[in-house]
């Protein structure tokens, strides 16, 4: 038995789908699903064809055969997230809560400190000071009356919060000693100090300021041991000793120190640094010393003598120095060797024994002085073991890890790091250590001295915090348990429902969104109700193109899912859309037929029409591109079934910015009729038109005998008549106002004609528009009115503006303009000559009068605009001496003979940019208002008659460079730009403008009177050879923001004290 062609095609397609069911790519599935449409007409489509289009017969994929889900197969339920739920799974997969015990402090370990953003430098010092047992013991003895007042019999300190720096510090030390947490939060202390947690400050400066603040606070205690604890621990004494070479008189100047600041440039070990610190300095020449004994200046020597050393000796290694090439600080990565045991006896006079042991090394990781990370290596006083303190992380250093001061630099590869020099036993070498802490060796160490008990009131605070921590641990453990229980229940639910998802042959089924199934299997996503509405076609059913976005499941599983999670718009077996399949079938067949029809149409177009045959009008552009238009139309026919809003047949959507276009639209006029432009259309035969109508059934149709649009023909006739009228009007106006059109013989205030005392004013905009019309009357509309009201202020007074905005007219020209145009306001200017005074001054009066109030406001607004600019150009001239600076800063003049060159006076900041008739052809001085509101003009000089005037074009000179600046930019930022342009350090720059020095580095350029096109003179000082002196100068000239709060107050006090000294 032989089957018909339709059944044969159906069997072949089903066979292809069955063979390619498992691993078929999406495009192959798409092609196989519609292969039958090539041989089946739209009216012959059956239910089997519809199921093929929706791929109902494609076999489901088996687990393990797909790497990911097959989106083209609605029956593939593999790779949608089910792997984590099937089989045995780890309980930790049911929650994202870390084990709270990981936050618990391990036995015999120290407590870390949280980094609040950029507070690692604070954390390192706090850990070092915590391990200073004498300091910790003293702080515990600090009298805290507030805490004692809150103490209750219940053993808790209710409503107590530390306030002062010492209260915060002693509470922090108590937590570091007895807390159950792995790390604690120092935000209370940081907030009390007023530190910016997002900005990394100078670590050495913080150490000095904090110890000064602590010393000031403890000095007010009644206990004498507390009053002097900072001095006993950290304070030493030295003297600046000056010796006269003539009489030998010594002049000591005693001083205290809390750390020794050592220069490391050119040195290899700590001993060399200390030796240089104490070396002798010669005072001779201009630097001679005034000797009180000799009563005259004498050559002398000066050096530092160490007199006493503290118990804790801090060495600040000056790694951060100023680089005058870049204008910023830089870090010195020099390797410095330092011993574990330091003998200071050679540097002291009259001391028998003075030995120190290394107690801590503070490290800066990073190659920049303005960023990086701070770490501390600290020795435990109880066990003598070394530990690395890195914020929250604490690590014991032993074995190969016991390399003090060694940390890899941030953002530096192993290849770029300098090789570490070899160190002797008992020595360590570091390129990142910036502070070394040594403790004085004691002959006998009392073990009771190393055991420090936390005071009772502080221990109660610690116990309260430990209680909160335990409660938090229990809460986290309960949350973990709840998540695990919820996950196990979800596990059972998924295993049960996943087995019911596949729809067997002959079993009822529904479609659900693929994304919803994925979210259902993803436990971290909140599950919403099922929504299929986005997959509907314009007929309210499932669109065939959306089959890749849904999955076919059994009705039993669908009932359970909709029952548990809810949903709308269920898609069952009846949701397969016959209309969409039929439309797709028609489109596929037309696409296959398009190439053949295109060749046939183009051949028919070449044949001439028969004499008795009536044709149809078609656009030439449409005929050239009809195949592409047809393809676009077919694609839109497919797209429109996806949406409820249909489109006009033959219409093309916007693509790549093109306008929407219909076939034959190029021969439509604005009124919807046949266009009168016959060159854009041609006649084709009825056979050609019928072929095209298959692809564009709703395209506009015009038989050959159809008349062109009557409205367009009437407008064309009227347009030709108007064009002739415009030409006549333009010729008449041009002949009447020829000089105005050609810009010849124009009146000016400086060349006032002798035969008239009145001139008239019109806007320059009117003249420009009128000239455009005269030049091309057929392309534009004639100018009908003169809008002089724009030259008046709200009070009706005349506003003096730039001469580029107004034009002066002769009385005869004004008579013509008044006759030919509508004038809303007459504005004139009269000459008033005072015959009693023979000084050559001529006054002028306008009608309406000048409005002084609005004129001054206009000038003020101009001046403000000059101070509010962005991306403007200024010029910097490097000068050698004052004479040249004065010469080069003089105003520039250029000679120009062009009458139409658009040049005007450069604006000045002090109110001289008067918006009057500021420039004339002769370049005379600007007009000045008198008390009556009129203005006067000085007589024209010989120089002005020669045609010399100020030009806005800047003429660059040798040694001058242009910089782009903004008004809100500071002078400091401008100096950095100048440094890169001229290689002159900021502190070597002396800037001036118009003879006025610019000195306030924090002021903005706008506030300093720097306007666009300004000329700034730069005089460079001689370079400073001493790097330390440069650093000091730069710190004075370029102040950093520094510390705030209480520690900032100490910082300012120290600076004032330093200046006073």
TrEMBL record:
GO terms for molecular function: cysteine-type deubiquitinase activity; cysteine-type endopeptidase activity. Residues 111-441 form the USP domain. Transmembrane segments: none annotated. It is found in: Cytoplasm; Nucleus. CDD domains: Peptidase_C19L, Ubl_USP48. Residues 965-1016 form the Ubiquitin-like domain. It comes from the Eukaryota. Residues 482-581 form the DUSP domain. Residues 635-657, 891-931 are annotated as: Disordered. GO terms for biological process: protein deubiquitination; proteolysis. It catalyses: Thiol-dependent hydrolysis of ester, thioester, amide, peptide and isopeptide bonds formed by the C-terminal Gly of ubiquitin (a 76-residue protein attached to proteins as an intracellular targeting signal). It holds the Pfam family UCH. InterPro entries: DUSP-like_sf, Papain-like_cys_pep_sf, Pep_USP48, Pept_C19_DUSP, Peptidase_C19, Peptidase_C19_UCH, Ubiquitin-like_dom, Ubiquitin-like_domsf. Keywords: Cytoplasm, Hydrolase, Nucleus, Protease, Repeat, Thiol protease, Ubl conjugation pathway. GO terms for cellular component: cytosol; nucleus. Its EC number is 3.4.19.12. Belongs to the peptidase C19 family. This is Ubiquitin carboxyl-terminal hydrolase 48. The lineage of its organism: Eukaryota, Metazoa, Chordata, Craniata, Vertebrata.
């Amino acid at each position: 038995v032989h089957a018909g062609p339709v059944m044969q095609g159906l069997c072949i397609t089903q066979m292809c789908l069955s063979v390619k069911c498992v691993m078929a790519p999406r495009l192959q599935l798409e092609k196989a699903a519609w292969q039958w449409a090539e041989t089946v007409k739209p009216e012959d489509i059956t239910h089997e064809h519809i199921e093929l289009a929706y791929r109902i017969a494609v076999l489901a994929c088996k687990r393990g055969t797909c790497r990911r889900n097959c989106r083209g197969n609605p029956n593939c339920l593999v790779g949608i997230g089910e792997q984590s739920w099937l089989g045995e799974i780890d309980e930790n997969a049911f929650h994202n809560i870390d084990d709270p015990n990981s936050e618990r402090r391990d036995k015999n370990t120290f407590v870390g400190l949280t980094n609040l953003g950029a507070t690692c430098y604070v954390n390192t010092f706090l850990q070092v000071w915590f391990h200073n047992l004498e300091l910790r013991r003293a702080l515990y003895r600090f009298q805290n009356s507030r805490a004692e007042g809150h103490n209750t019999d219940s053993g808790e300190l209710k409503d107590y919060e530390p306030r002062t720096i010492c209260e915060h510090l002693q509470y922090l030390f108590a937590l570091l000693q007895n807390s159950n947490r792995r790390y604690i939060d120092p935000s209370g202390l940081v907030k009390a100090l007023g530190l910016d947690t997002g900005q990394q400050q100078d670590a050495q400066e913080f150490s000095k300021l904090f110890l000064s603040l602590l010393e000031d606070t403890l000095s007010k205690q009644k206990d004498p041991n507390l009053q002097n604890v900072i001095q006993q621990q950290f304070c030493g004494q030295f003297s600046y000793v000056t010796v006269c070479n003539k009489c030998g008189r010594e002049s000591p100047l005693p001083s205290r120190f809390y750390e020794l600041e050592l220069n490391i440039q050119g040195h290899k070990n700590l001993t060399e640094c200390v030796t240089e610190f104490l070396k002798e300095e010669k005072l001779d020449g201009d630097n001679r010393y005034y000797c009180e004994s000799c009563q005259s200046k004498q050559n002398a020597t000066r050096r530092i003598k160490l007199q006493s050393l503290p118990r804790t000796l801090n060495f600040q290694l000056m790694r951060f120095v100023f680089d005058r090439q870049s204008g910023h600080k830089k870090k010195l990565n020099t390797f410095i060797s330092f011993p574990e045991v330091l003998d200071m006896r050679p540097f002291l006079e009259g001391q028998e024994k003075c030995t120190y042991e290394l107690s801590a090394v503070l490290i800066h990781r990073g190659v920049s002085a303005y960023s990086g990370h701070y770490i501390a290596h600290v020795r435990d006083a109880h066990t003598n073991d070394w530990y690395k303190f890195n914020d929250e992380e604490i690590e014991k250093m032993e074995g190969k890890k016991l390399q003090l001061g060694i940390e890899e630099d941030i953002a530096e590869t192993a290849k770029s790091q300098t090789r570490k020099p070899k160190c002797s036993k008992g020595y360590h070498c570091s390129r990142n250590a910036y502070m070394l802490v040594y403790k004085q060796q004691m002959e006998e160490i009392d073990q009771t001295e190393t055991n420090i008990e936390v005071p009772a009131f502080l221990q109660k605070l610690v116990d309260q915090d430990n209680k909160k921590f335990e409660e938090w641990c229990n809460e986290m453990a309960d949350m973990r348990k709840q998540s695990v229980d919820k996950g196990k229940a979800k596990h059972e639910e998924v295993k049960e429902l996943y087995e019911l998802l596949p729809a067997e042959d002959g079993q009822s089924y529904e479609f659900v969104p693929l994304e919803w199934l994925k979210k259902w299997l993803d436990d971290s996503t909140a599950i919403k109700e099922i929504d299929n509405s986005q997959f509907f076609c314009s007929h309210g059913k499932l669109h065939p193109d959306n089959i890749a976005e849904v999955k076919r499941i059994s009705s039993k599983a669908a009932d359970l899912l909709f029952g548990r999670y809810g949903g709308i718009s269920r898609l069952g077996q009846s949701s397969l859309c016959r209309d969409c399949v039929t439309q797709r079938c028609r489109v596929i067949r037309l696409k296959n037929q398009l190439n053949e029809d295109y060749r046939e149409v183009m051949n028919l177009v070449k044949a001439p029409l028969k004499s008795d045959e009536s044709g149809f009008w078609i656009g030439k552009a449409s005929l050239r591109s009809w195949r592409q238009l047809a393809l676009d139309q077919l694609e839109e026919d497919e797209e429109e079934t996806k949406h409820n809003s249909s489109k006009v047949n033959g219409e093309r959507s916007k693509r790549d910015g093109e306008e929407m276009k219909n076939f034959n639209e190029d021969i439509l006029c604005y009124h919807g009729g046949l266009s009168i432009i016959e060159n854009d259309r041609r006649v084709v035969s009825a056979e050609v038109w019928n072929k095209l109508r298959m692809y564009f059934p709703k395209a506009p149709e015009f038989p050959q005998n159809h008349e062109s649009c009557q409205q367009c023909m009437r407008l064309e006739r009227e347009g030709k008549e108007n064009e002739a009228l415009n030409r006549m009007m333009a010729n008449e106006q041009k002949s009447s106002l020829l000089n105005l059109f050609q810009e010849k013989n124009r009146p000016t205030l400086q060349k006032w004609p002798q035969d008239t005392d009145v001139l008239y004013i019109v806007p320059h905009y009117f003249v420009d528009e009128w000239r455009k019309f005269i030049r091309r009357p057929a392309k534009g509309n004639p100018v009908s009115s003169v809008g002089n009201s724009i030259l008046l202020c709200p009070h009706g007074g005349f506003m003096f503006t730039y001469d580029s905005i107004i034009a002066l007219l002769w009385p005869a020209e004004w008579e013509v303009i008044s006759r030919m145009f509508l004038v809303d306001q007459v504005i004139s200017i009269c000459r008033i000559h005072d015959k009693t005074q023979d000084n050559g001054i001529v006054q002028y009066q306008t009608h309406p009068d000048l409005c002084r109030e609005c004129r001054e406001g206009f000038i003020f607004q101009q001046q403000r605009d000059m101070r509010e600019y962005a991306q403007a150009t200024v010029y910097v001239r490097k000068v050698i001496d004052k004479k040249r600076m004065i010469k080069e800063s003089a105003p520039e003049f250029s000679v120009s003979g062009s009458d139409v060159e658009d040049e005007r006076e450069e604006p000045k900041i002090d109110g001289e940019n008067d918006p009057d008739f500021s420039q004339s052809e002769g370049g005379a001085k600007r007009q000045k208002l008198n008390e009556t509101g009129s203005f006067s003009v000085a007589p024209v000089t010989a120089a002005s008659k020669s045609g010399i005037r100020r030009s806005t074009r800047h003429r660059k000179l040798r040694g001058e460079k242009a910089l782009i600046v903004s008004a809100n930019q500071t002078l400091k930022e401008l100096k950095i730009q100048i440094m890169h342009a001229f290689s002159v350090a900021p502190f070597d720059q002396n800037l001036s403008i118009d003879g006025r020095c610019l000195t306030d580095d924090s002021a903005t350029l706008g506030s300093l009177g720097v306007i666009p096109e300004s000329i700034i003179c730069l005089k460079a000082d001689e370079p400073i050879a001493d790097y330390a002196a440069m650093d000091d100068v730069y710190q004075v000239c370029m102040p950093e923001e520094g510390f705030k709060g209480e520690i900032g107050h100490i910082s300012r006090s120290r600076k004032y004290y330093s200046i006073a000294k």
